[in-house]
Structure formats: C-alpha cells, structure tokens
Design goal:
Length: 307
Amino acid sequence: MDTRRLYSFVKIVDAGSITRAADILHIAQPALSQQVSTLETQFKQQLLIRSKRGVAPTEAGRALYRHAQLILRQLELAQAAVDVSGRAPAGSVSVGLAPYSTGAALALPLLRAVRERYPDILLHINENFGGVISEAIMTGRMDMAFIYGAGPLRGVQFEPMRTEDLYLIGAPGTAAPALPGDEVSITELADVGLLLPSRIHTIRQVVDAAFRHASLEPKVVGEIESVLTLTSAIGAGLGATVLPWSAAQAILDVRKLVVRRITDPAIEVKLSLCTSDHQPLSEPALAVHDLFHELIRDFDGDELRHK
C-alpha cells in the first residue's frame, strides 16, 4: 500500500473537505479525489460521504482513519529511530498529566531532567482529563501519561505507580473549623463547602462514591477545572477542596492552610503510568519513561523523609 494515500486520507478527514485538504497538501483536487477512489477500490468499501458541506467518514472510513493514524505514527517512529541510531536520543515525546495529581509535582522535575540529560528531546506536556489522554495514547498521538486509575482499558497498558490518600484542604475557617485534630471523617465533611472538579474527574468520582457509601451528599459550592482559579478560591476562603497531599503541595501554599486527612473511611486514589499496549515506545520516549520511574522513586523517598 502507498502510505501517501493513507496520509492524504487522514488529512481529508481532519479537514472535513477534499478542497481544504488539497490546499493543505498542495495537491490538485482531482488527484486527491483519485487517491480516495483508489483506497475505496482497494478496501471495497465507501470511505467518505460527500455533501455540500464537505466530507465525513463512513463507519469503514472511521476504522481506516484510526488504523492509518497508527500506521503513520509507526513510520514516523521508525524514521526517527533510523535518524538517531548511534546517537543520543532525539525527537519529540508527548506526556500527559492528570490535573490535580502528583503529575503537578512531577512536571517541572521531568522537564528539568529531560533538558539536562537529553537536550535533543523536545518534551510536550499536556495536562488533561484521563479519558482524553487515554484516547490520545490509543491513537498514537501521545506516548505516555501519568493519570488516575489502574485500568483495564482497551489499547492502554497501566503501570500502577502510587496510591495516595485524599486530604481536606482549605483556609482557616473553611475546613471544618470547629473540629480539632489532623483528621476529618466523611460525616464531619458533609457540612464543609467544597470546591471540586466536575464529575468527569476521578477525584470527584471517588469523593462522590465515599459520600454515597455513607448515605450523604457532598456540599459542593463550586466546580473548578482551572488549577489557577482553584488556588485563588482556596486562598480567598471561598471553600475547601479535596486533593492528594502531593498535588496540594505542588499547587497550594499549604503552610497557610488547614490540611486534614479524610478518614472513616479513608479515600484513596491510584495513579498509573500509561502507554500503548500495541505499539512500542520510540527511543526518546523510552528515555523519558525511565526518567519517570526515577523521579517517582526519588519523589517517594523525599516524601517518606519529610513525614
């Protein structure tokens, strides 16, 4: 198969128009249409639905689009491996990090370590929700991710790395002020105004599940996806939040805040390093993968020493 046809097909689907794709690829529109016709003949399936608004893939077209992305990504990795053979790892590596996770604490050390050890690796860091990130890994658009959850998920391999307790964190006067001590129970937490991410986020899901198990409802006073906005809202005393200790240290000035571990029951979240289970990591991605493991080991050691 001529992979140039696959590349053209992916660009057509992305653009939603043969005309726009022809402009992007600098190919005459009739020639591009002929490439699509050749693919449809080869696969004995209609791949695109044409209308006045442009084109859209059929079910067969969507299947080909997914596989074409993987094939083209493999070719890109093969070319990169050949280009850097015998030299230090070089190329682009895409890493996903779940918001409000240990990833927030690891992002800067990872970037620093890559710059120091592998200056020819271009590190792309993407902070997004686990579902978005795992889909990017499945389609080959992202090399690895540090996200909540331990699987299973089709197309993604999970390496469990950490299990963390969740803490109630807020300004004095917002984090259950009448209750002394370093812990707070779910029952006591029911009266605290909480600033949490939306229900698509793992932290929100485990908090909601813990409340349901206790036959209670969390008092959610705001849903915040922005780390910057959450930081400002907590500092202004607009509510408390629930985070792993590592994430809280990375994004909040915990010295000025009340921090209480949630108990009765304790709430835990699992974090995993995720990669594709059907395509190998490139040489630069393997180097970054090893750095991730090294940073996690150092991070755990530092955390134990400071407890």
